[in-house]
Structures are given as C-alpha cells and as structure tokens.
Amino acid sequence: MNLQKLLFLLTFLIFTPAFAQDSTSVEITDESIDDKVERYFSPVSNWIQSKVFYSISATEDTKVPLIVIWLAFGALVSTFYFKFINIRGFKIAIDIVRGKFTSNKEKGEISPFQALTTALSGTVGLGNIGGVAVAITAGGPGATFWMILAGLFGMSSKFVECTLGVKYRKIDVDGRVNGGPMYYLSQGFAERNMPGLGKFFAGFFAVMCIGGTLGGGNMYQVNQAYAQFVQATGGDSSFAAGHGWVFGLIIAILVGLVIIGGIRSIAWTTSKVVPFMCVIYVAASLVIILMNISEIPSCFKLIFQGAFSPEGVAGGAIGVFIQGLQRAAFSNEAGIGSASIAHSAVKTEHAASEGLVSLLEPFIDTVVVCTMTALVIILTSGATAEGLEGVALTSAAFESTISWFPSILTIAVILFAFSTMIAWSYYGQQAWRYLFGNKKSTDLAFKLIFCGFIVIGAPLELKSVIGFSDAMIFAMSVPNLIGLYLLMPVVKKELDKFMEYKNSK
Prior knowledge:
Helices cover 75% and strands 2% of the residues. By secondary structure, the protein is mainly alpha-helical. The strands form 2 sheets. It has a two-stranded antiparallel sheet. Helix 3 (66-81) crosses helix 8, helix 6 runs parallel beside helix 17 (360-379) and helix 7 packs across helix 18. The longest helix is centred in the last third of the chain and has 43 residues, at 462-504. It is globular, with a radius of gyration of 22 Å. It starts with a helix and ends with a helix.
C-alpha cells in the first residue's frame, strides 16, 4: 500500500498551508472555545472549497461548479446505459428487501434490509432537513424541482456503484467484509491492464472519503444537531449556547460506544433508528401538508415555475438548477461511491441484487423525504422571513403549524445525526483500512480521530462546515465516476446473471 500512503501524505501536505491562513492576526481576548475553533477552521474550509469547486461562468451572476455537472452527467449516462433501471428495477428491489432471492446462508455480514438502512442512515438525515432549507434559501422553491429530478436519475448511478461494491469486495477468513470504490477501482482497472492508475484512483478516493467522513458524515451532522438543540432550549438564552464542544463531547462518547462493535453493531442500530425516525418525520410532514391540502397545487406550480423562471434569485434559472443539484448530491450521495461500502457487506451471491436494492435510497432520500421538507417550508413561507438557515429554518416552518414540534424535531435531528455519523464512521474506517492496513491499532486510531472531529464540528458556523463537507464528498465522485464508466459492462453482465437467476425461481 506504499502508493496509497504516499498519496495520503501528499494530500495532507497540500492541505496543510490552509491551516496557516489565519485571517486573525490581532490578539483576541475573551474568546470562547467555540469561537477559537471557528477562527482556526474557517480559513481551512474556504481554501479547500476553492480547490474542489472550480467553476465556470454560465451567466454574469452565476458560476457553475464543474463537479456538479460531473455528477449530473454520470447519473444521466447510467440511466440511459441501463435503459432506465431506476424505473424497471423498482419493484424487484422491494422484493429483494422483503427477503426474496437472497438467503442468510450466503456470504456477507448483514441482510439486504440492514444494508439498506445502514446506507440510508448515511443519507437520510440532516441533508434532508437542513440541506433542503439551504437549497430553498439560496435558490428559491424551484430548487426542489431539480432536487427531485437529480434524485430520480441518481438512482441509476447508485445501482452501478453498489453492484460493483459487492462484485469486487474482499471477505476475510473471519468473515469480515472489506469493500467499496477502493477495491473496484484498484481491481477493475487491473483487469484492464491499468493497475497503477487503478491504485492511484483508489488511494485518492480513500483520502477524500476520510475527509468526507470527517466533514459531511460527522461535523455537519453534529453541527446541525447542536443548532437545533440550542434553538429548542431557548435560542441565545439557552444553557447550551456557547458550549457546542460540550454537546459534541457527549455525542462523541455515544457514537464511540456503537462504532466499537463494527458493521454488525452499526447495522443493528441503524435498522432500529432509521425506520422509526423516518416514520415520525414523514408523519409530521404529512400532517402539515394535509392541513394545507388546498394549497398543494399552487405550491407545485410555484416549484415548477421557480425552476425555470425564478425571480429575485442570484443566477436566475441556472442558479436554481445548481442549488438543486448540489443539495441533492449532498443528500443522496449518488455517484459519490460511499453507499457501496455499506452494501458490500450484504449477504448475497448476486452483486446486482444489492445494486437493485440500493436504487431505493435516492428515491426515499430525495424524492420522498426532501420533497416533503420542501413542501413544509414552502407552505409555511412565513418562516423564511426570520433570517434563519439550515435546520433552524425547517424547525421554524414546522413550529408555525405545530407549536410543540420543535421538541420532537430536536430528538429526530439528534437521532438522524447520530445514525448518519455511525454509518459514515464505517465508510471512513474502510478507507482508513485500505490505506493503512486491517489492524486493531489502526482501527482504534481512526475511531479516536473520528470522535475528536465530532467535538470540533459542534461549535462551528454552518457556512464553514457545509463548505468543507461539500468539497470532500464531491471530490470522491471524481475517481468513482471514472470507474463507473469503465466498469459498466461488468455491471451489465452481473445484472443479466441475476435476472436469469430471478426468472428461474
């Protein structure tokens, strides 16, 4: 693994100068711990964003990040190459989750349902609650349209990457599974006589995955959970205000207790938490939607019109398009490659069967949950006048109709954040193992680092956290989508094999 370790070191050295870019040269007195964390981290976040989100000018007011177009193009290619597998495979995917076509006796560590809930716990969460609010604040109601469309097409790229995750996974003698883009990039390229390039892409993905784990899968989650907790307990006068690091420390301890047990412990926890919290959140959303049922047609009209002819939104229609795509990609992670790490641990002998299961994720995450959040915010548009952002805006939208709901949402946000963090800890751990070896000492080192970043993430400002998170997670898509394009014929063969098996049952 010398190449991967060298890549990790080089990436660290490249990013290190950002830490020296502290814009505050004047001595600051009476500065809280939370303020100090923000002051040191903000320049790092800004520097990394500038490197990852290289943009081209689309209009005078709008710049288009190339990485967003890269993801959208990958979803479109996957959809057309597999003849709309996102639609054709939907019913089969539900049958597989219900236990058809698979057996507990097959190789792997967790069931298809547990793999789905583990991957969903990494996607369904604060991206759906806070991320949607960010998209609507920046891009208006029309951003919802592009989020839905991105979710539908993203189902196909999710299918491809998760099929490859199972196809190229490695199972240890003790039954532990190691899988994900690191393995299908290195092995898939080697099969095509490009082993060096495959190792480079695998190593680059692993480094970015660790960064994405610490950012989007960790700091963003605890940051928004803390913001909601403060708001629900009195806002600026809350006993928790200014003590984000204490909140982060408590969550870090709880997360640490779960991730010690590995994927089986994580899968068991998420299989209980995710369905429960999804039901509560969706039910609350439906209450508000049904209370305003007469306004739904005009609401969808506003979304559609805003998608193509927005008023008062920077960048016009293109600006709305970019906001929708960017927040959808952050929420459902289609094309990023992260979910394939969780799905690779499934008990199955047919790689494509788990690929089909995975296409349900963007549908549940973006088409269902994100749309409901958007409808609640738009229907209670008075909440936007308060100058709130992220999860605080969503909370205010619910509170405007259900006065006591912020207390429930606070519990939901914390549990969603918790489940997302434990799922992403597994993703990061797999990437860490690929770089530094499968040893107890390296596993422990990563888990300690992961829990440490939970403490750091709680007190930061949303802008700093979301910028760093987006940059790391989106960077993962660069090598991943190159691998998907190259290995699509492999996925097609796996799909044909599974369909033949299914038809014989």
